From TrEMBL:
This is Carbamoyl phosphate synthase arginine-specific large chain, mitochondrial. Its main location: mitochondrion. Keywords: ATP-binding, Ligase, Manganese, Metal-binding, Mitochondrion, Nucleotide-binding, Repeat. Its cofactor is Zn(2+). Belongs to the CarB family. The keyword Nucleotide-binding applies. Pathway: Amino-acid biosynthesis; L-arginine biosynthesis; carbamoyl phosphate from bicarbonate: step 1/1. GO terms for cellular component: mitochondrion. NCBIfam families: CPSaseII_lrg (TIGR01369), PRK05294.1 (NF003671), PRK12815.1 (NF009455). Transmembrane segments: none annotated. It comes from Pseudogymnoascus verrucosus. CDD domains: MGS_CPS_I_III (cd01423). It catalyses: hydrogencarbonate + L-glutamine + 2 ATP + H2O = carbamoyl phosphate + L-glutamate + 2 ADP + phosphate + 2 H(+); hydrogencarbonate + NH4(+) + 2 ATP = carbamoyl phosphate + 2 ADP + phosphate + 2 H(+). One of its GO terms (molecular function) is carbamoyl-phosphate synthase (ammonia) activity.
Length: 1169
């Protein structure tokens, strides 16, 4: 039997040899069936005989009636699974979270940390979580017993250990942040000092996997080839190493996340610059031989302390080596490996994981020679990573949960598979579908940013699509990345060949352009891109089908078989309409007439070989039957889709909270979302989970199949809002909450404004314009500065403050590309105003609850990038009452049911009367700050909103702002400037942060002090070190001076790059201060780095009025390099002043545990959430 298995494998390999014909068939099941056979050959025999019959049983069971799925309780009763034979004795465990979302470390750790907390709860072990990320699901008492919103640093974690006295600690669920923390604390001897046991993978293993020399040595012991690398600590050593290894070279920083500080160098000059930057981020860098162009393959491996070891999933990058796996298109299971290659790498992965002594989950990345059996291990991550979140969602195997159970002392055979409930966790999943992951970048939002993608990650989120063929899977994924895309398509490029050879974030569009419109052959594309021909032939199938439909040219010429073929290849109705010159609705009608509808399939981890009880679903046209029944008539909840700048984990918190609230009311829930990093796409969040597109077509398909009773569109950010009106009008779907016609009245500037006028609510002067001449005339009339924005935006995309006529002309030419169907709106921009955020819930137009937060920054900084304070410190009672009055009027005017959010600016009256309150924005949906206000005030706003949506148990109106509190919280943004090479770190109306953090305190100083230290890799400038000052001294006259007044008594050395800054500070400062002007090379990064080192510059205050015009601009160079050299940068006057105030009050540090180290439940008085 094993022989026949091997033969199937060989035939598939043979087929692949003669892959010249595009249609060479490739059965999905080949790999999986072989795998299950060969696994058994390697398993120790004592693991009971139940595994031995697996392959036969599948065919036998199919012949007879399908058996009802066994429940896990029944499984336990039968004695197939036992309790842990030797559990670790624990009363309380500390879990370290990953902090704010940043590029390279995003929502996947919210999901994995949540699963770990779930495992602890089941085991009856008390859990304490340290994570300053207030937007995630895990920082709530639903999952964890106690939460500390504090910086993830040794200093603060030690305070918490002193206070909580835990027995154990989990370091593998908080990404690189938690892992680095663990290594630091071990070196400081803190775990030993307090008797805290590190659970799961031991620290020694973590160090071995992170330190390149130890790693190479360990793999050498078992004869596993590693990419040849030399670890160095200086630039000179790097150059010497390169001479030995030979160019091209890849430089990597040790102990860094998502390839931060890595890149390719083809000669000495490039290596010098690369090494200079990387050495600021890490004490050790690795100089390695570059294997660009090889295949990149990953394996996810799980091992328990009893040495049971399985590979859960293997994945293959669509892009060859050279692009970080987080920035690559990834396909699972691998499609182009021969059987021999597959098993060679699988065996090596198991060997490595056993040798390193990993306990829990681990990810092994390989480079594989494209036309031979040579391979190298690139790296091993002995923690949960982005890939493991993807593997979990792609296979339905709960990796993080299993890893946590293993950390508590369980072995794999003792654990039930939590998804299928009918098998043990000691099995390898087999897939009868293809999963494609595509990253989402938002590079267009930044000025001067380099758009190439390489070994350092730049993407902010990712999508995952499931299909029965590669074509279906990749086309779904492309549409998920951005609703603008219809599927595999092209775009205009100046130099297509250059674009294909040098990957950027628009690479797949270049491939599409070449194949669809320029007639490139597979051979030519392969030579340019080094993408495996198998993938290119599959894309060619899509191209051929497109051309076939275009040749027919009309909807009525489309016969049933061609329409069916297109749907099987993942074409959307809109894409087919484009090809034949029709409309989406007409194609949909014709398709339904032909009886062509999608089928719903389960992800059951066992390729249907066992009956499995899962609710984890996807739709496909490559099927003939449904795997589920549709008798729930549940409520559809539309998730937030891909994380991007402006829409992140906050909306996932909203979607999950709404789901849990509906469940509590006894309603059946159906979640639609396609983001593998989220908690909402976990198998046990909703009653049914569809891993699907959030497009009109797909949502209507599911709505009709499920016979759903309603759709929730207000908890998933902007994406569900955009299709709400169409779902109701064309699809006749029942939208719960605010009427989509009213939503439209708030999204459309003209309608929005008229309603505000009618209810007597003020707004800044504005006008909607269609020509440049009209725009110029209006701007002159209201006087500059003005704000230019297109209609329908998320997170201020394409909004800009314009200060002159020339700027206006430039901008308008750019804005017309942003939204061709929409004219542009110009608003008077009020300088020096304060901004107020209002989050509220209404029911039938009546205000139920509201929260008022104030921004620290002046208006003009996007609210997603602003620092929020709640309860507010500087808003008087009269203003609070007026703000509430506006909320009441708005709720009534739009007859809102559900969540809504407003931004109001408060501008002083020159005559000395009451300040003007002007509404600048209103969203009739949950906003980014909902989790923050809910957790600070101790009332779950989404819970209340969900009750309003279904009209059940709606609470009486309550004024939460009238309650006096003895604490406050500050929410600060997490930026990822370091990742975005070249981008100007400057805050404006365009949002640029990737995540957020919040900390609590008894006052503003305490809360903000902790919040800022919680941002990633923040290092406090200590007294005696150097501070560099710069920026604009004309406008905010007092900002730099105020900062110096706070800091000068602390004994910092003060520097400036320009004489006028020096004289300005010395003349106006309160104390007698001296500022030294230092040399400041703007062109040579290496020289500049020496300057920073020479003067020990550990903090930069650069208060700028506008973005740098050129890359030689002194202020731009100062801001950019502060970021590149890992030095804290303060570039906004109000937050810089506040932080200087914090430093003056908090430094030097006092003895004892600081006041901000308190349980969240102590601050808010209980566990209401």
């Amino acid at each position: 039997m094993a022989l026949s298995g091997r033969l199937t494998g060989r035939t598939s390999a043979l087929l692949r040899q003669c892959r010249a014909s595009a249609s060479s068939p490739r059965a999905f099941s080949t790999r999986t069936s072989t795998r299950s056979l060969l696994v058994k050959a390697q398993r120790p025999v004592e693991k009971s005989a139940q595994y031995q019959i697996r392959l036969f049983s599948s065919s036998i069971q199919r012949a007879s009636q399908p058996e009802p799925a066994a429940t896990s309780n029944q499984f336990m009763k039968d004695g197939a699974l036992k309790k842990a034979a030797n559990p670790i004795d624990l009363k309380k465990v500390l879990v370290i979270g990953s902090g704010g979302l940043s590029i390279g470390q995003a929502g996947e750790f919210d999901y994995s940390g949540s699963q770990a907390l779930k495992a602890l709860k089941e085991a009856g072990v008390a859990s304490v979580l340290i994570n300053p990320n207030i937007a995630t699901i895990q920082t709530a008492h639903v999952l964890t017993d106690e939460v500390y919103y504090l910086p993830v640093t040794p200093e603060y974690v030690e305070y918490v250990i002193q206070r909580e006295k835990p027995d154990g600690i989990f370091l593998t669920f908080g990404g690189q942040t938690a892992l680095n923390l663990g290594v630091q604390m071990e070196r400081m001897g803190l775990f030993k000092k307090y008797g805290v046991k590190v659970l799961g993978t031991p620290i020694k293993t973590l160090e071995t996997s992170e330190d390149r020399d130890l790693f190479t040595q360990a793999l050498g012991e078992i004869n596993i080839p590693v990419a040849q690398s030399v670890a160095v600590g200086t630039i000179e050593e790097a150059l010497d190493a390169a001479k030995v290894i030979g160019y091209p070279i890849i430089v990597r920083a040790a102990y860094a996340l998502g390839g931060l500080g890595s890149g390719f160098a083809h000669n000495e000059e490039e290596l010098r610059n690369m090494a200079a930057t990387s050495l600021t981020l890490s004490p050790q860098i690795l100089v390695e031989k570059s294997l660009k162009g090889w295949k990149e393959v990953e394996y996810e491996v799980v091992r328990d302390a009893a040495n049971n070891c399985i590979t859960v999933c293997n994945m293959e990058n669509f892009d060859p080596l050279g692009i970080h796996t987080g920035d690559s298109i990834v396909v699972a299971p691998s499609q182009t490996l021969s059987d021999e290659e597959y098993h060679m790498l699988r065996s090596a992965a198991i060997k490595i994981v056993r040798h390193l002594g990993v306990v829990g989950e681990c990810n092994v990345q390989y480079a594989l020679q494209p036309d031979g059996l040579d391979y190298r291990v690139i790296e091993v991550n002995a923690r949960l990573s982005r890939s493991s979140a993807l593997a979990s969602k792609a296979t339905g195997y709960p990796l993080a949960y299993t890893a946590a159970k293993i950390g508590l002392g369980h072995t794999l055979p003792e654990l039930p598979n939590a998804v299928t409930k009918t098998t043990s966790a000691n099995f390898e999943p087999s897939l009868d579908y293809v999963v494609t992951k595509i990253p989402r970048w938002d590079l267009a939002k930044f000025q001067h940013v380099k758009r190439d993608i390489g070994s350092a990650m730049k993407s902010v989120g990712e999508v995952m699509a499931i299909g029965r063929t590669f074509e279906e899977s990749i086309q779904k994924a492309i549409r998920q990345v951005d609703p603008r895309f219809v599927g595999f398509q092209g775009d205009k490029f100046d130099d297509l060949d250059y674009e294909l050879q040098n990957p950027t974030d628009r690479r797949w569009l270049a491939v599409g352009q070449a194949m669809l419109h320029e007639g490139y052959t597979v051979e030519r594309l392969h030579d340019l891109t080094k993408i495996d021909k198998w993938f290119l032939y599959k894309l060619q199938n899509i191209v051929d089908c497109t051309h076939e439909m275009e040749d027919i040219g009309s909807l009525f010429g489309l016969k049933k078989d061609l329409l069916m073929k297109a749907k099987k290849m993942g074409f959307s109705d809109r894409q087919i309409a484009n090809a034949v010159g029709s409309t989406e609705d007409e194609v949909r009608a014709r398709r339904k007439n032909f009886g062509i509808k999608p089928f719903v399939k389960k992800i059951d981890t066992l390729a249907a070989e066992f009956p499995a009880d899962t609710n984890y679903l996807y739709t496909t046209y490559n099927a003939t039957t449904h795997d589920v029944t549709f008798d729930d008539y549940g409520t559809l909840i539309l998730g937030s889709g891909v994380y991007r700048i402006g829409s992140s984990v906050e909306f996932d918190w909203c979607a999950v909270s709404a789901t849990l609230a509906l469940k509590e009311m006894g309603k059946k829930t159906v979640m639609i979302n396609y983001n593998p990093e989220t908690y909402s796409t976990d198998f046990d969040t909703a009653d049914k989970l569809y891993f699907e597109e959030l497009s009109y077509e797909r949502v209507m398909d599911i709505y009709e199949l499920e016979g759903a009773t309603g759709v929730v569109v207000s908890v998933g950010g902007q994406l569900p809002q955009n299709i709400a009106l169409r779902l109701q009008e064309s699809g006749k779907a029942n939208i719960l909450g605010t009427d989509p016609k009213d939503i439209d009245k708030a999204e459309d500037r003209q309608k929005f404004s008229e309603i505000l006028d009618s209810i007597g609510v003020d707004q800044p002067a504005w006008k909607e314009l269609t020509s440049v001449a009209d725009a110029e005339a209006f701007a002159d009339e209201v006087s500059y500065p003005v704000l230019v924005r297109p209609s329908y935006v998320l997170s201020g995309a394409a909004m800009t403050v314009i200060r002159s006529k020339d700027e206006l002309k430039d901008k308008l030419e750019a804005a017309s590309n942003v939204s061709p169907d929409h004219p542009v709106v110009i608003t008077k921009f009020i300088e020096g105003a304060e901004e107020i955020d209002v989050d509220a819930v209404a029911s039938d137009g009546k205000l139920i609850i509201h929260a008022v937060s104030e921004h620290v920054e002046q208006a003009g900084v996007h609210s997603g990038d602003a620092t929020l304070v709640l309860p507010p410190v500087n808003i008087d009672q009269v203003t609070m009452d007026r703000v509430k009055e506006i909320a009441i009027k708005v709720a009534k005017a739009w007859s809102i049911t559900g969540p809504f959010n407003m931004q109001i600016i408060k501008a002083l009256d020159p005559e000395g009367g009451l300040p003007a309150l002007k509404v600048i924005e209103c969203n009739l949906r949950a906003s980014r700050s909902f989790p923050f206000v809910s957790k600070v005030l101790g009332v779950n706003f989404i819970d209340v909103a969900t009750k309003a949506l279904v009209g059940r148990d709606v609470p009486e109106p309550q004024d939460l702002m009238a309650i006096k509190r003895d604490y406050l919280a500050t929410k600060v943004p997490q930026f990822s400037w370091t990742r975005l090479a070249g981008a100007d770190p400057f805050l404006g109306v365009e949002m640029s942060s990737t995540g957020e953090i919040a900390c609590f305190g008894k006052d503003l100083v305490e809360a903000y002090w902790a919040s800022l230290q919680s941002t990633m890799n923040f290092r406090m400038p200590e007294p005696g070190e150097g501070l560099l000052f710069g920026g604009d001294i004309t406008k905010d006259k007092n900002a730099l001076v105020t900062i110096v007044d706070y800091l000068s008594p602390l004994g910092y050395k003060l520097f400036a790059a320009e004489d006028h800054v020096k004289s300005f500070i010395e003349k106006n400062a309160k104390n007698d201060v001296s500022v030294e002007v230092i040399e400041f090379p703007v062109k040579d990064k290496r020289e500049l780095r020496k300057v920073f080192e020479k003067y020990d510059i550990r903090g930069v205050f650069n208060i700028a009025l506008a973005r740098g015009k050129t890359t030689q601009d002194v202020d731009y160079v100062m801001r950019r390099n502060a970021v590149d050299f890992g030095v804290p940068l303060f570039m906004e006057p109000k937050t810089a002043e506040l932080f200087a105030r914090c430093m003056s009050e908090k430094l030097p540090r006092k003895e004892g545990i600081p006041g901000e180290v308190r349980r969240w439940s102590d601050f808010i008085g209980g566990k209401p959430l």
